[in-house]
Structure formats: structure tokens, C-alpha cells
Amino acid sequence: MNIRLAKKGDEASIAKVHVDSWxxxxxxxxxxxxxxxxxxxxxxxxxxxxxEAGFGKSCLFVAEVDGDIVGFAxxxxxxxxxxxxxxxxxxxxxxxxxxxxxxxxxxxxxxREFLNEIGNKSMLVWVLTDNPSRAFYLSFHPxxxxxxxxxxxxxxxxxxxYAWKFFGE
Length: 169
Prior knowledge:
Blueprint lengths: L1 E4 L5 H15 L6 H6 L2 H14 L5 E7 L2 E10 L9 E8 L8 H15 L4 E7 L5 H5 L4 E10 L2 E11 L4
Parallel strand pairs: 4-5
Antiparallel strand pairs: 1-2, 2-3, 3-4, 5-7, 6-7
Helix pairs in contact: 1-3
């Protein structure tokens, strides 16, 4: 396994991981019609924009196995400014067949390390309450700091915010 910053040309592979991971992770949780509406093309455009923006205050790491991108994680400044947290883990997605092999832990560590290196002293992540991977985040012993309702498609879902303090690592 290799973890590296994403680069131009990775967008289609990242989009595939993004869409396929949503469809396997959130099946039975998020409305099927929303999952079926997810598009590789739309996600590819989103990731093209992110990669073109560069990685000054944000990051996008990919996990490769045998040269294929099988997962990714992104992070940057905390978006709400409602908490005393400066960094945010925006997403970790891994193809289902590569989960539970240490890839998520490696991606989490890379984002945390990146955010710490650019001066962040804390990080949060939002996780759907019914996300079967919630235990993954709990394994890093975060503090639960909030819950809120979010809209995905036509439905409302509860999310939990977890936070970690870095204490000047």
C-alpha cells in the first residue's frame, strides 16, 4: 500500500472510489434513489477542482494498492467555525474490498499529520449516526462535540461531530 497526495490524472479513480463507497457504505441508510443518482462524472469534476486548487491549507491523499487507487481522504480548515477546532477531516472513503486492512488508519494519520504540520491543533469529523464505520472513528478516542440534522437528497439524517486535540504533536 502507498499513500500519497493526489495529483492531476487521479480524478476519475477518486470519483469511482467516492461513488462506489457511498453505494456500499450507505445502502440501507441513505435513500436508494439518492445513491442511484450519484454520478462518476459529477464527482470527477468536483475532485478536479479540488486538485487544481492545490494543497496549501487542505489535502487530498490517495491510497494505492498495486498502482490502483482504492481509497482517499481529504481534510482542511474546519468549515463551520462553530467549535474551538481548527482542522477538519472531510472524508475517508475506501472501496469495500479494501476495508479493514489498515488503509483507513493510514489515511486518517496522513490527514491528521498534514493538518498538524500546517499549524492546526485540533480536528473534527462529521459521521452519519447510522454509518457502519462509526466504530472506526471511535477507535481513535475522539470527543463527541455535537449532533445535527443534515439533508441528503430529500431525506434528513443525523450526524455526529467528533473532535481530537493534537496538543502540539
